[in-house]
Amino acid sequence: MTKARTDLILRYPDGSERPIRLRSKPLNQGADGLIYAAPGGKLALKLYHEPAKDPERPQKIRQMLQTPPDDAGMVHFAWPIAELNNRRGQFVGYAMPLLAVAEYANLDLLLTRKGRQLGKLPESRDFRIKAATHLAHRVAQLHARGHCIVDLKPANMLVNRKTADIVVVDCDGFAIQGDGTHIPAHQYTTGYIAPEAWQQQDKPEDLGQQQDLFALAVIIFQLLNEGLHPYQGIPGGKVPVPGDTQSRIGENLFAYSRQPNPRLKPSPWSLHRDFPPALRQAFDSAFSSTSRRPNAERWANLLQSLASQFKDCRKDRKHRFWGQQCPLCQQSSVSVKVKKPKPRAARGRRPSPRAQQNQPPHVQALVRAYQAAQATPAPQPQTKPLSVFSLMGGVFFALLLTGYFIHLHNEEQDRWAQSQVTQPSAEDEKLEQERQQRINEERERNAWKGLGPRAQAITVHRSEYRLPPSPRVPGTRAVDQTEEQKRAVPHFELGAFDSYRSLPVMIYTPFTPTWEFTQDQPIKAATLDPLTSSIEPSGAEYPGTDGYQMMGWHRHPTSNALYVRKRGFQWNSYTLARLSENSDVAEYKVYDRVVNDGSGVRNFVAPWHFAVTGDDNYLIIAAQDKIRVYAVNRPRSPIAEIEFPPAVHRYEVSDLAITPDGRSIFVGLSSNRNFGQSFDATILEYALIDDNLKFVTDFRTRWSDDSAVFSGSVSVSADGKTLAVGDYRDLETDDSRYTQFGRPVKVRTALPGIQLWRKDGQEARWQRTGNYSLHRRDRILTPDNHAMPNFMNSGIPTGTYRFNINFELSPDGKRLLSGIETEKDSRTEARARAWVFSLDTGQPVLTGRLEHSVSQSTGHKVSARPFARLSNDGTEAVIGWAAYQQSVLSTVRSDLLFSLTAFRIGE
User: Fold this and answer.
1) Per-residue pLDDT for 597 more than 70?
2) Residues whose CB falls within 8 Å of the CB of residue 150, separated by 6 or more in sequence, listed in order
3) Residue 134: phi, psi to the nearest 5?
4) Rounded to an integer, what distance in angstroms lies between the CA atom of residue 657 and that of residue 609?
């Protein structure tokens, strides 16, 4: 095939365009079109053979661009992210993420042992149940947006050979629910069509999500049962059974129900008897009733819980099972020896009861039948040669004996299956009640996850960066750093933005993958465009001396000055630095006395926060004991300072919020001791008048509330008349769930919430106008301390990322972005959530939910940082993750995964 040289135009959902030229051979060719790799290696381009053949196709791709599934970086779906046109503006295809398909195999290879060998896939039941769980997650993600796969089958799925993660391909064939428009799918495969469609001669796409849920249950059954289809088995009875699988589906011949099917019996090699009762009940519901058919999310939750209930086999470490005995060992132990006839008759020995007691009933039947045949008197030696009639009689007798063996096997299997259904019925009923109670309790505990309508996703971005290795030990000089050691990456925090197409980031060289401190390299300002995955330098560059703390960086939009914390002795931060584009550095003292002076005793450095006025003339710093105000051009000494009231001298600074003019200052203070049992917090209000600080209000004492305490988080509108404050409600002491060093401890728990305050224009007094709380009990915590070094080698820091911490209020005070909630969905996946509230009425009204998940491969230690940000006008929002992945072996590469989802949340 000749190389292509084609001029094309990428057209993104927001209307922006980018020309592109293909100069490479296609990666793949299908019935619909060719797949190319775009220059840059991040996009795959699908060019249809006959773009005008289906007039519905361009509209379908455009609707898919507007309604992508919520997936971190679109690494699980070959989903369109841009329309592909020719130079005349005609639709010719679409662009999608270029997936690393070399790491994957077709899912249908995972179903059977031979397929797993061909696909080089692990031979473990753990791997297959993980794959089934990931598959259910993918279907749930699509159904959450209203889409349907319709032609759901293993051939359209890819499975990662190491992690069992699932990738969905051929997405342009799905049924798409667009903005008020439904575009159906017209492809489907027999063997996976739901019975109600087959019986009524309807099109499978007319069933919608029920068609997907039936096919999903079939694939899960095949994954957990060595590729056996749930409608394949052994015919029984006098009524004939259809020879093809789809006709058996249409006649509801599910062979593995807890109630035996008289027409179709289970295969003797099936593992369904090892399934837990909850799993068998789920399959019964999926194949017997459309009203009780489990949805994809329920399948995912069930499979994830069952994965932890596997037992290890003592005979074979590769075998895992749920029941009392390993079914794989039972199958491998089925072997019957038949002795050759001897010259004279001999009595057969009775089988040893001890040898048979560990065999399953259907295996015992086979053994008894063969032993009965063995005990038949052997024929006496004949002097004459065998005649034709004698030979035919022997053959007839052998066939008759074989039929007798099969009859014995089926009869014994039926009795055993019937006993399994009738004997433990009372126990099954009790287990089912307990299971249902656990499900209801789990559903109630997790109800908060689905609060609010899902916000409209605009685009999903994912990019990876190679992190530099650690060049030295902290506190020593770098020696002859290589270009690899000088490599720069974006810091995960975003600056203030007007449009999601231009997200401000800071490019720096981290000291180590899990530390936020800079190396002795320049820091550069840049903007990230999630649609094109490009980071463009803005031209601003700052002197990146050794040891600036990037957490909480602030680049002023007027002067372009960069504010960062500067490390001191033992990497603690005692100073705030202002870096200018002309390489000038100004430093502002936070503490008069350094608590760690080299004496050998390491003391705790109290948290501190800073804020800068909108004109970049004043700098406010809130430390442990006082507030200091600096004139930006006079860094040597503050122009004003004031100590906190004596009642809060032992409190720590949790948050700081100011109006753009700096006249109104709000400080969040908190104290947390004895696992939250001695927790208290407040919000202090100060006024800056003629370069003097004046104490105004202590919210805790002025408006006390016996049912709630402040959390120490605060955000204020630009006019200073709307205030969002975090709180804890319904406080309780819990000594049943928390331990320290293996011993139970009493911990203070509460419902995290939000309070909204408004200032009356006439009396200028604050009034609480409304509140909102999550219906979930949390342990009371205080935010992380960014003045101390971060030693997090893995995991997610929990102090800063919570619903009632780190609010962001739009400048007009009409929208509030709650703090970020983090959740570890599994060993390799984490999810971040945030909620958007409308504040027009004075009562927080939940209007949207933001979600973004990140996946990482196993075998690495991972530290993950979530982030969320509102646009300046409050109409857009971004949520995402920065996952720092490093091999346990220091010589192996380290990577930064940067992924996000942009949302449209209002006009």
Assistant:
1) no
2) 173, 174, 175, 184, 185, 187, 188, 204, 205, 211, 212
3) -65, -40
4) 9
Distance CA 808, CA 608 (A): 19
Q: What are phi and psi of 355, to 5 degrees?
A: -75, -25
Q: Has residue 32 got a pLDDT over 70? A: yes
Structure tokens at 493: 């925090």
pLDDT at site 439 = 66
What's the token pair of residue 120?
């080089």
pLDDT at 12 exceeding the cut of 60: yes
Q: In terms of DSSP bridges, do strands 652-658 and 664-671 run parallel, antiparallel, or are they unpaired?
A: antiparallel
Find the farthest-apart pair of alpha carbons in the chain and give their distance in angstroms, rounded: 130
Residue 352: is its pLDDT beyond 60? Answer: no
Strand partners, 862: 885
Q: Across 602-673, where does the E strand assignment appear?
A: 609-612, 618-622, 626-631, 640-643, 652-658, 664-671
The crossing angle, in degrees rounded to 10, of helices 209-224 and 277-288 is 140
Gyration radius (Cα) of the chain, Å: 34
The burial of 705, by beta-carbon neighbours within 10 Å (0-12 exposed, 13-18 middle, 19 or more buried), is given as middle
Check whether 865 has a pLDDT greater than 50. Answer: yes
pLDDT at 593: 72
Give me 289's structure tokens: 């009733």
Of 116-130, 335-349, 632-646, highest mean pLDDT: 632-646
Nearest to 312 by CA among 131, 125, 164, 127: 125
Place of tokens 């084609």: 6
DSSP bridge pairs for 748: 733
Contact assessment for residue 870 and residue 808, using Cβ atoms and an 8 Å cutoff: yes
- Cα→Cα distances 658→370, 553, 559, 618, 664, Å: 88, 16, 18, 11, 6
pLDDT tens sequence across 448-458: 888 888 888 88
Burial class (CB in 10 A: 0-12, 13-18, 19+), 337: exposed
- How many degrees, rounded to 5, is the angle at CA 127 between CA 124 and CA 128? 95
Q: 494: helix, coil or strand? A: coil
Does pLDDT of 867 surpass 90?
yes
- Residue 637: count of CB within 10 angstroms of its CB: 11
Question: Is residue 1 scored above 60 in pLDDT?
Answer: no
DSSP assignments along 134-186, one per residue: HHHHHHHHHHHTT-B-SS--GGGEEEETTT--EEE--GGGSBEE-SS-EE---
**Residues linked to residue 534 through DSSP beta bridges, in sequence order:** 529
Integer Cα distance of 105 and 119 in angstroms: 6
The string of pLDDT tens digits covering residues 481-524 is 455 556 788 999 999 999 999 999 999 988 765 567 888 889 99
Residues 65 and 55: their CA atoms lie apart, in Å, by 17
Q: Is the pLDDT of residue 395 over 70?
A: no
Joined tokens for residue 420: 């399994």
For residue 753, what is the enclosing H or E element?
Answer: strand 747-759
DSSP 400: H
Q: Which helix (H) or strand (E) holds 535?
A: strand 534-542
CA atoms within 13 A on the CB side of 5: 1
Could you tell me which residue, 593 or 463, shows the higher pLDDT? 463
Q: What is the SS3 assignment for 418?
A: helix
Query: Is 376 strand, coil or helix?
Result: coil
Across 515-540, average pLDDT: 87
Q: Which of 44, 333, 322 is nearest to 172 (CA)?
A: 44
Average pLDDT of 35-45?
84
**Would you list the DSSP string of 816-859?**
EEPPPEEEE-SSSEEEEEEEEEE-TTSS-EEEEEEEEEEE--SS
User: What's the whole-number mean pLDDT along residues 246-268?
Assistant: 86
Render pLDDT for 203-231 as a digit per residue (tens, 0 to 9). 788 888 899 999 999 999 999 988 999 99
Average predicted confidence (pLDDT) for the chain:
81
